[in-house]
Amino acid sequence: MTEARTNPDDLEALRAASDILGIDALLSAEERAVRDRVRAFVDDEIRPHIADWFDRGHFPVELAPALGRLGVLGMTLDGYGCPGRSAVEYGLAALELEAGDSGIRTFVSVQGSLAMGSIHRWGSEEQKQEWLPRLAAGEAIGSFALTEPTAGSDPSSMKTYARRDGSDWVIEGAKRWIGLASIAQIVVVWAQTDEGVRGFLVPTDTAGLDITVLEPKGSMRASVQTELRFDGVRQPASALLPGARGLRGPFSALNEARYGIVWGALGAARDSYEAALHHALRREQFGRPIAGFQLTQRKLVDMAIELQKGALLALHLGRAKDAGTLTPAMISLGKLNNVREAIAIAREARTILGGDGVLLENSPIRHAANLESVRTYEGTDEVHTLVLGQHLTGLDAFR
Fold this sequence. Notes:
Elements: H1 11-18, H2 29-46, H3 50-56, H4 63-70, H5 87-100, H6 102-122, H7 125-137, E1 142-145, E2 161-165, E3 168-179, E4 186-193, E5 196-203, E6 209-213, E7 225-235, H8 248-282, E8 284-285, E9 288-289, H9 294-323, H10 328-352, H11 364-376, H12 381-393
């Protein structure tokens, strides 16, 4: 019997062996530096605590300023104190954050892509100056309210309505599965109006706004999801996002978030694979490491292949985004494929860990649970399948 080619405790060697296609060499030195900085943050600030946070259903809001200092909030936005990094650098950061936990990467996505992205793209100069520097620093937290109790995959059917009353706007309705709202200072609220769908910046301490945390959950436990109810919520004219008209406003932010998921899901999958590989090299049965058995090797190989394919896909989309050629269909393909494969990898990794795989000290079962939420939000598998079907055939099968 040959010796194991790598020390199971030498993570860098395991990663080098798993990079069969040499994808790391496709990254620039600056891109690798960003990745390594975020990876070190995750190792120091998230990994030691995440099992406890998940078990208690706790989101560590105190991480927000640290994530701001790390430069991952509104990472691709320019000006107003935002980092102004490339799409690939943001993708690599999303991957490393979700290797820690999907809930942490989701915080960065809701804050940076959804809330900050909407303000940066559609807000007035005054709104940008007021909110973006604080949000980028993690000194304030933002939320994004689009989904409703009866309007999830079909936002065009939203019932939340904003009517004019003199120079003010009065908002009535409800939103559901809204990330961060209970810990946020500002919410980007999308509502129907006589002029079509418009966006509003609503402070969370506004009279008439009721926020309820949705719990208990079996997934995304180290994260915050809420339900919002608007009962005559009055806002001044200055609350309106002047540049956003119609569903193009929220959809532009959703595409930014979906792009981050393409990379983030790989982080959960990679962490699950590495946990399984480490265990398989150390765990002995029948007088040898279980990594030396054919069935275990097949599982590890299948996981490694999908990780390599997913990484190439994510990198291709990142390069396209930086070049300005990324399309919604490309994002749908990436989100559908990488999340679907990440779930399969997390579940398969759990089987290699055997009984120990159900303990939260081992990450695959937590990642598998979290990825069920990632699979659902920002477009379900079914929605992205129909987006791609429409792209291929020219026929809309949504109705």
